Amino acid sequence: MCFDLRGKIRNDDVIYCGLSIYLVTLDADVIIEIRKMQAEDRVLERIVALTLRKLNGEDVSDEIEEVEKMDGLEDANALSGLLKMF
To answer: What is the pLDDT of residue 57?
Structure first.
């Protein structure tokens, strides 16, 4: 549903929504769509990159903590919390 809204809401909002859905459902179709998009917010872009690296089996736990300290995306802590559980 969030990807259907691409023409109506900000790209970052679509990515945030999609990434949240992916981290909860692990739906491969969602991560494929996210990979096609470019985040404008540097924190969100970093969270997407960390998610993809973690998906490839890398340990990104220290970097997740760094992201939580960064300014930018208001809800970065929600995404980073989901990423920690992923």
So the answer is: 92
Q: What is the pLDDT of residue 60?
A: 93
Query: 36 by DSSP, 3-state: which?
Result: coil
Q: What span, in angstroms and rounded, lies between the C-alpha atoms of 9 and 27?
A: 22
Is the Cα torsion angle 56, 5, 43, 37 positive or negative in sign? Answer: positive
Q: Which residues contact 23 (CB under 8 A, 6 or more apart)?
A: 51, 79, 82, 83, 85, 86
Looking at residue 8, what DSSP letter applies? T
For the chain, 86 residues long, the average pLDDT of each consecutive 10-residue run is 72 86 90 88 87 91 84 68 79
pLDDT (0 to 100) of residue 49: 92
Task: Report the length, in residues, of the chain.
Answer: 86
Distance in angstroms (rounded) separating the CA atoms of residues 56 and 47: 14
Q: Give the C-alpha separation, 30 to 47, whole Å.
A: 15
